[in-house]
Design brief:
Radius of gyration: 16 Å
Structural class: alpha/beta
Helix content: 40-55%
Distance between the termini: 18 Å
Strand content: 5-15%
CATH topology: Rossmann fold
């Protein structure tokens, strides 16, 4: 059996990592893992509650633990939480067996997309959501730029994003052959 490299989707919340990831996994015949979802299942607590009860550091430790596990997988599309890039060890682990793709979007698009889900984003609970998004994006910008491919999803559907990623993977695989 041929073990294929993982496709790792990083980027800010609301850029389409989950919707694109599910579609991409289906098209590639890979399995899909949403690390935030896995953290909640493995720890039997929502990320919201985890932040509220134990704080962000506790969550980041659980996230790193989960990343170490999923980085060992093969033939997976891994959708990560927006802050996964804050820990360099996370990114080293994910790159060892994965192509890293950053999904980006404009602040307005992120505001609109994250506004659809009420109270599920612990870092967006404050009043001035726009300013929080701007600040977080600014803090993480350089880290998101370190991907193998960067795609702006502002004007693209998950299907179009998936097509772009598949084109890129094929090109990378041709160069490796």
């Amino acid at each position: 059996m041929i073990h294929m490299r993982n496709v790792v989707l990083i980027g800010f919340m609301g850029t389409g990592k989950t919707s694109t990831g599910k579609l991409l996994a289906s098209r590639l015949g890979y399995f899909f893992i949403d690390t935030d979802n896995k953290i909640e299942i493995d720890n039997k607590i929502s990320i919201n509650d985890m932040f509220a009860q134990y704080g962000e550091k506790f969550f980041r430790d659980k996230e790193a633990e989960t990343i170490r596990k999923v980085a060992e997988y093969h033939s997976a599309v891994i959708s990560t939480g927006g802050g996964v890039v804050l820990n360099e060890d996370n990114m080293i682990a994910l790159r060892q067996n994965g192509i890293v793709i950053t999904l980006t979007a404009s602040v307005d698009v992120i505001l609109e997309r994250t506004g659809r889900r009420k109270n599920t984003r612990p870092l967006l609970k404050e009043e001035d959501r726009r300013q929080i998004i701007v600040d977080l994006l600014e803090n993480r910008h350089e880290l998101y730029q370190r991907a193998d491919l960067i795609l702006d999803t502002s004007e693209l559907s998950p299907l179009q994003v998936t097509d772009e990623i598949i084109k890129f993977i094929r090109k990378v695989d041709e160069l490796r052959a």
